[in-house]
Amino acid sequence: MGMGLVATLAAMNLTWTTAGESHGKRLLAILEGVPAGLELDLERVDRELARRQAGHGRGARMQLERDRVELCSGTRAGVTLGSPISFTIENRDHSIEELPVPTNPRPGHADLAGCQKLGMRDPRAVLERASARETAARVALAGIARQVLEQFDIEVFAHVVELGGVAVPDETFNSAGLERERIREASDFQALDPGSEAAFRARVDEAREAKDTLGGIFEVRALGLPPGLGGYSSGAERLTARIGGALLSIPAMKAVEFGLGFESARRPGSEVHDAIVPAADVTTGKGYGRFRRSTNRAGGLEGGMTTGEELVCRVAMKPIPTLRRGLPTVDFESGEPVTATYQRSDVTSVPAASVVGEAMVVLELTAAFLSKFGGDSMDEVRGAFEAHRQRLLEL
After folding, report:
1. E-strand stretches of the chain
2. Residue range 80-139, pLDDT digits in tens
3. Residue-level pLDDT at 94
4. In a domain, 66, yes or no
5. Which residues contact 167 (CB under 8 A, 6 or more apart)?
6. Does a structural domain hold residue 5?
7. In 10 A of CB 236, how many CB atoms?
């Protein structure tokens, strides 16, 4: 066996891939690297898919599709075997062969650049795969992966903090406390401030009346992470880059920040960096190690690694570029200015994007966790994890 293949296999801790078109028969996904011995809750995966489809401002397709995973491999009696896990998600609207070819590219989409890449005038050859429909498979993948993290009391939680220029008050996550999941579930916008619901709704209804669309910002937090996930030796190991890249791989995402983010560029160093202090109650076995940060301006990452504090990142999503009022474009055949072809669309999908963003953070954190503590079985992972936790108390 060549050394290149050995290195490749050693790096394969958690990998995934998806396939399928927006209006094809189904989406498919394969997840490799989940250890044997994990009891999977597929209803939990379906609940995550339902979260992605909910929310005020969604389009007609969300009433048509009722996403469910159909597991194809990787388990026996509901317990993982350590082999690749594969599943499908049916598309109820699988009309790809009947849909007409748009005669013009839509601004803000992958249509024109994709057609130029392929050297053809068929935007459907591009948009069927570029569509955000593919993210349903990612949410399902994360619905499986997060069950690894939850074995170690690690929680990943996303919520909307701004929509169409309307922002929730600061510190809504902290004020929600242990009620955060219940509050988010009751929200039409995956948000944690009930007082902002009416303003969000009015903004969406206003945009719908104007045949326009809205973007916004969501926040993803991860609680209970041990320090030292990720790496500093190369750019590819740094979790800041890995999580940032994963979030920006979601269609329509335009910016990502961690902790203070852009604000850290405006402050002096004394108001940016987090002081290291002795951790309290280290003898109780709670928490990780003998140190903590007095603040968390870094957002839980330093040098490309987790610090043991909460991971905090925010993501900006642009408004969906499919507008009922239409945007100026050019006809492929005549070269004349026209109004872009309208495809079925949402007024806003920021709440859904927050679910997808949460999923991408889950996938990257699970990959980093198994890279650090991975083994063939969950028992081996638990043993490595507990050994590391003990070493941190002795450091």
Report:
1. 15-19, 26-32, 69-73, 75-76, 79-80, 85-90, 155-163, 166-167, 216-223, 253-258, 276-278, 291-293, 301-302, 305-306, 311-317, 328-330, 337-339
2. 999 999 999 999 988 889 899 999 999 999 999 999 999 999 999 999 999 999 999 999
3. 86
4. yes
5. 161, 196, 217
6. no
7. 11
pTM: 0.93
What's the DSSP call for residue 111?
Answer: H
- In this structure, are residues 63 and 344 in contact, taking their beta carbons and an 8 Å threshold? no
DSSP 302: E
Q: Would you state the structure tokens that stand for residue 232, as one six-digit string?
A: 């500093």
- Judge contact between 27 and 20, C-beta under 8 A: yes
Widest CA span in the chain = 75
Q: Domain of residue 247: give its range.
A: 12-394
3-state secondary structure 6-21: HHHHHHCCCEEEEECC
The CATH number of residue 133's host domain is 3.60.150.10
281 assigned to some structural domain: yes
Judged against a pLDDT cut of 50, whether residue 215 lies above it is answered with yes
pLDDT in tens, 291-305: 999 999 999 999 999
Checking 77-80 for CB contacts under 8 A at 24+ apart, the result is 78/39, 78/40, 78/42, 79/36, 79/37, 79/38, 79/39, 79/40, 80/34, 80/35, 80/36, 80/37, 80/38, 80/39, 80/40
Residue 2 lies in a domain: no
